[in-house]
Amino acid sequence: MGDIIHPFGGKTLVFETEFCGRKLTIETGKVAFLADGGVLVRYGDTVIMGTAQVSNQPRPGIEFFRC
């Protein structure tokens, strides 16, 4: 991807390392601008996008960490 200007002024960060003989790249600030968080993870020929959305108020009846 070329240079992307974040529409809301966020920073673009790129982290790279080698893992088990392949390049691992994690990029944030380039996708999912309306989500609270979004990353592109590249490992070899595989690319995934992960996003997260949060709320400052809990939803009644939703228990994520239920035993």
Beta strands, count: 4
Shape: flat
Considering DSSP H and I runs of 4 or more, what fraction of the residues is helical?
under 10%
- The termini sit apart by 42 Å
Structural class: mainly beta
Question: Helix-strand pattern, N to C?
Answer: EEEE
Instruction: Evaluate the radius of gyration.
Output: 16 Å
Mean pLDDT: 84
Spatial order of the strands in the main sheet? 1-2-3-4
Number of helices: 0
- The stretches of 5 or more residues where confidence is low (pLDDT under 50) are none
Strand-residue proportion = 35-45%
Largest sheet, strands/sense/barrel? 4 strands, antiparallel
Task: Describe what you observe in this structure.
The protein has strands at residues 13-19, 22-28, 37-43, 46-52. It is mainly β. The protein has a 4-stranded antiparallel sheet, with no helix packed on it. A hairpin with a 2-residue loop joins strand 1 and strand 2 (22-28).
Topology:
Elements: E1 13-19, E2 22-28, E3 37-43, E4 46-52
Antiparallel strand pairs: 1-2, 2-3, 3-4
Give a summary of the structure in a few sentences.
Helices cover 0% and strands 42% of the residues. The protein is mainly beta and 67 residues long.
Summary tags:
67 residues, mainly beta, 4-stranded antiparallel beta sheet, 4 strands
